[in-house]
Model the fold of this input.
Amino acid sequence: MRSSNPVFSRRGFSRDNGYAGFNTAPQAGGAAVGTQGNPYAQPQAGNPYAQNPYAQQDLQQGAPPQAPVTTGRMTIDDVVLRTGTTLGVLIVTAALAWALLPIDDANISRSYGIGIGAALIGMVLAFVQSFKRKASPALILTYAAFEGVFLGVLSNIVDNRIADGAAMQAVIGTMAVFAGVLVAYKAGWIRVNRRFVGFVMAAALGFILLMMVNLLFAVFGGGDGLGFRSGPLGVVFGVVGILLGACFLALDFKQVEDGIAYGAPREEAWLAAFGLTLTLVWIYMEFLRIIAILNSSD
Done:
């Protein structure tokens, strides 16, 4: 399975570096990669080190099995630092877009156009990174910058024209979901296994397909399309979107945890930062949409 994010398909930790991300694709003979407790690797008969690809390298070279070395390996500090850097770039550009792109009646069309353009560029950059074999820090930070411009313009419009304080409410909601999922994951209340991954991916695929159909009806039929993103039904789908985002946070946490345990290279922390940023942006936008719907119906 190549994706652990509902917004964009992205690679897991690099196979070339000896560590594979979520992968449940059937192999020859119909077997699927993954175990109940670890969806990343499957033990092979006669190879006690198959669960740790780095231990495999030692075995192939005839060296005695050793614990993974820490030098050059990903740590939780690496993930926190790179995630903070990526989110920091996004927040700074969002603040600049909020301050420098006016949304008064004379300029709102221009500012909104810039925001949509930034969103499209960010989407392209995210897809490029998703299909790259290795993480590109420059590409990830550039994506964050353009995504920040889009979020800054969009948040400013919603906050000042639809619901005062909507942006801060959406930020608080996103932080609450992140903290809640992290606590639940660390406490063992959320078990990320193959069944969980399969269910979440199927639900996300169905959700995205429905949103695409709704968008097509809106573009060619006018109005709100099928109504999935407006009115009471829009609120329901917004809540579903937030729940899906929470599930993908759990998948991201699992991927980071296993990457550290198996000694993934330090540069793979950028992939973790990329995935977490995508998920947090998804959750923030769903919160913003719900707040806008609730206030526009008053």
Notes: The chain is about 65% helix and 0% strand. Helices lie at 53-60, 76-100, 108-131, 137-162, 166-186, 194-221, 231-261, 269-296.
